[in-house]
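User: What would this chain look like folded?
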Amino acid sequence: MPPLTSSLLSRSTARGVGAAAAISRPAADAAPSSSSPPARSTPTPRLRPSPASPFASGLAGRLFGGHRAAARSASSATAVFERRFASAATRNSYDEILTGLKRPGGGEEFGKYYSLPALSDPRIDRLPYSIRILLESAIRNCDDFQVTGNDVEKILDWEKSAPKLVEIPFKPARVLLQDFTGVPAVVDLACMRDAMSKLGSDPNKINPLVPVDLVIDHSVQVDVARSANAAQANMELEFHRNKERFGFLKWGSSAFRNMLVVPPGSGIVHQVNLEYLARVVFNNGGILYPDSVVGTDSHTTMIDGLGVAGWGVGGIEAEAAMLGQPMSMVLPGVVGFKLSGKLKNGVTATDLVLTVTQILRKHGVVGKFVEFYGQGMSELSLADRATIANMSPEYGATMGFFPVDGKTLDYLKLTGRSDDTVAMVESYLRANKMFVDHSQVEAERVYSSYLELNLEEVEPCLSGPKRPHDRVTLKNMKSDWLSCLDSDVGFKGFAVPKESQGKVAEFSFHGTPAKIKHGDVVIAAITSCTNTSNPNVMLGAALVAKKACELGLEVKPWIKTSLAPGSGVVKKYLDKSGLQKYLDQLGFHIVGYGCTTCIGNSGELDESVSAAITENDIVAAAVLSGNRNFEGRVHPLTRANYLASPPLVVAYALAGTVNIDFEKEPIGISKDGKEVYFRDVWPSTEEIAEVVKSSVLPDMFKSTYESITKGNPMWNELSVSTSTLYPWDPSSTYIHEPPYFKDMTMTPPGPRPVKDAYCLLNFGDSITTDHISPAGNIHPDSPAAKYLKERGVERKDFNSYGSRRGNDEIMARGTFANIRLVNKFLKGEVGPKTIHVPSGEKLAVFDAAMKYKNEGHDTIILAGAEYGSGSSRDWAAKGPMLQGVKAVIAKSFERIHRSNLAGMGIIPLCFKAGDDADTLGLTGHERYTVHLPTNVSEIKPGQDVTVTTDNGKSFTCTLRFDTEVKPLFHLLQAILKRLLRKLIVTPNGPNFAAAVDGGGAAKGDEEGGKKGGKNGKFKRLDKIRPAKGDGGKGEKLEKKRKMDIDEVPEEAGVKKVKGAEVSELYQDNVVKSAGPADRSCGTQ
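Assistant: Here's the prediction, encoded as structure tokens.
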């Protein structure tokens, strides 16, 4: 976390002020939500946005990321700063359009909603459905402070304003976490509580303000496969390895209000979200509004298939959203993608999504929404839509959105949502112009650009061998593979000499003679949220297995086969269909419920197979039904990794190689000695539909999710502390108190120049977060392994980097530790090494980084295009920050990673078009100075920045801060320092917390709470004046406010406010709302 974030925290957590935005209301005050499935402690519903504390805005608003949450907190005087605490008191500017929603059959209404039709604005009908969700959120949260009428107008005028890249605030309805990314978030919350406690305030004030769902799904590994007890054995190993971090998450589930933790073994986060957690429409205390979600996993977009707006964000952004802060985002363009026709017989949703990914990648949709429409939508099941939405990160869009229609309602009923909930969803969305009825003529909507696909043109395909958008049609697979063997090393090449391409490596597999060649499959995994949520492809795979078994086909015993469903529902319908036994017969036993091979948790290959691959330099293959196949991700020994539908995974497992033409070559020999071809085992679309109809039933979903929060026996037996503060264990190698909040000072630092920095790493194109962030297994020779060994951890207990994300010491050592890292410094050598420029030593990246830090040198990174593509991993930014990296200069960045870099104080710079390190003659051996303005007020989004080197080179880059940056430092020094001192010496502090929190008392200050006004109803301050005979209290208060303002130095750029004006703002902790003139200081 950047120094500014730490300093903001240190200034804002004392005595209830800074925690104002992080205070949860008592659960007893919350009205039940008819559409909210999880049992959770819910804060009192609010019709207004929560106030922006300096603490939370500092967390959300990055110094160099430029989010308005931080920038705008510094653009006015103390009066404005204090005013933020009362934004919850403001009357919503659009309350006049608050409308009741009647039930279809009459009777009590569902609730009230902010009606878009009531605006009578013809522009609404032309808006894409996805933009209407942003519009409704802005209207519902409009207080002319955090969200302004001008923000609403920007969205209404989307057609004209989006091309201008205007900035808007957005408040998601909830936050979604998985355990890899969730542990660091909970660690940060725990640290915040410690900071509150150290400053003498109530740590219980730190709680999520919006519903937070955390699903533990990333920890299970395929240690045991091809065994009937594989799932239980892997679960036991999972708990053995992760008992400490599971205990930490279980502590968090009870320590923090409004947080639901779904225990291990329940399923994959995105499938659980789709089948259970998603509301589609919230009914929160009688106020109806669309469900929306941000998640710390990039594939949060899967929920877009259900008509819920959702996308991946960095962990810091997610934490800010958890604390009730609006996200700052550029109003996106929307690509309209029209679908027509119907998929041909035998073509799967996986084939469709790989085709869509290639089309959209070519079109260019980074930073945009993609919205699907057209009659072809009615031909796609909800699960098919979710498959397409899931891979939004792969095609580069913020989300791939499918508006709600009849198919959505059918899915809600199928998955066990109540009839009343479904009726409410339909009634609300129809009433608010957010529902698509394919039986009616749709009003013409406007999009930023248009694409069209006839579904009949989609062909069976795969993607690979190293990137998800490198689609290969099934009929061209063999020729493409041979081309990859011939081509130079790259995304489509392995540079295997012609004379070596036919090499056969013989080995003994548990006493059985075996052999392996280039292209032979060693991993075949049915895995990942992308496909395991789709009954059509899952039951399709089972039908392939059935036909193969009936013909007597087998899978070679050294191929590691696995099946990891995304929820318990999958097992139920596989059992109901009677098809699971055929998958078992081919070795596709269930190995666990969670992300496995898709995220690199594929487990070890058999030692004999590993030896045959490494000793003979075999290009071995993995075929998986995942969404990512970047080099080094699936398994260190599978250089070729292909994404395919679950039925194709089974087919390639049977064939045993990707070097095959399914049209001309047999996949095996039947029990009666006949050749069996692909067409002999491939099921028809009608066969699959028949099995789906008879086997996938609503009761399966209901029974699965009724007990989901009860966990399993191993989870229930975990004993955890009941303390509100986490008892940190200094010896822990899993959960470590991070350094971000330590040694905080009362004085925030100003921008620090990057001068004479050395280049730590010199990269080419497509460096992914898999290359940067610690991921996969911990290599025994790595700095992280050394750290663990020094603390008595045996190699067998190293676990994965992902499981140790709660320990910054290990994660810093694992940054840039990918064994497939290509660093230009190494002149063709591949691996996690670099050159320490001053000495010329070749060192592990971490060791070189520490050497630079110890010598007092800054470092930068040079990179090519698409730097940071892939999963939205915080540690891809946190790790470099801890290693001392100050700037990344690249041709282009992935959106979330760029935001994360800025959030950690690392400056993202883009070469100008046509420039890169090579064209500029940069070798990386130079020393770099980034001429960024030292005055924050001079830093502007997208401005030109000059970079010079010690050998006389000079070039211009674009500063990739894409939102506003305003003066911050002197103001915070002058005001927050004074405020914090006042809070620290006051036993209970000014009762801003009470005033904000519905008028309830801050802990230990009941009288102060009463002053907040009954039930949080604030009086207008211009109606309040000191009463005669009040002992001069009002007059004293006025003088006190004037004194605080007058102490602000002129150089802070703060306009002084006269005492008479201040009295308009303060009276007994009641604060008047900020008017339009103060919008620039809103924390948006």
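The longest strand covers residues 754-762. If you want, I can go into more detail on any region.
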